[in-house]
Amino acid sequence: MTMHTKIGVLRQIAQGMGYLHAKGIVLRKLNTKNVFIGHKVKVSAMDYGFPDAAKDRSDYGSLPRGHLTYIAPEIMCTIRVIPPRLVPFCSFSSESDVYAFGTIMFEVLSGQFPFHGMSPEKIIWQVCANQRHALFTFKCSLAIKTLIEDCWAHEPLYRPEFRELFKDLQRHSPLHKKHSSSEPRLNKSIDLLDT
User: Per-domain residue ranges for the chain?
Assistant: First the structure.
């Protein structure tokens, strides 16, 4: 998938989430496993509920790999183990959906989860302590990096709304558009003048 297509997918997710939030609907478990790309790169989001993973220990709860990175700090800091589940004692909100969208942006653009290779305990500590994943090696425009960081704001009230994210992605999409080889370029026209 080209960078332009990836930005288009993210734009569609932001638009759809903006619609849901305008209707008062919080998706709660926004992640790439709940986002489906259909024919002609049309995106749909589904909510399959908080994933369970059964364990045979009475003091152990778990989530599928990568799911911790979608959980906003205000929720992460309240999670308790009630085997076999991890139960949050804080309500999901439109702001927690925005935090999850920041992780979707990171995953779609980089091809991996934030905090890749870290233990769940370390991820929980990093998120709760506001230790964000470094974006300096991330290959995209500064504007897109800033959007991800804004989505990951530790304070929920500082996170943008989806309608703002949609507009920003719309505005920055041309920065990542690959030009067609059939488009005229200045150096080609100069070469033609020299002959």
Answer: 3-169
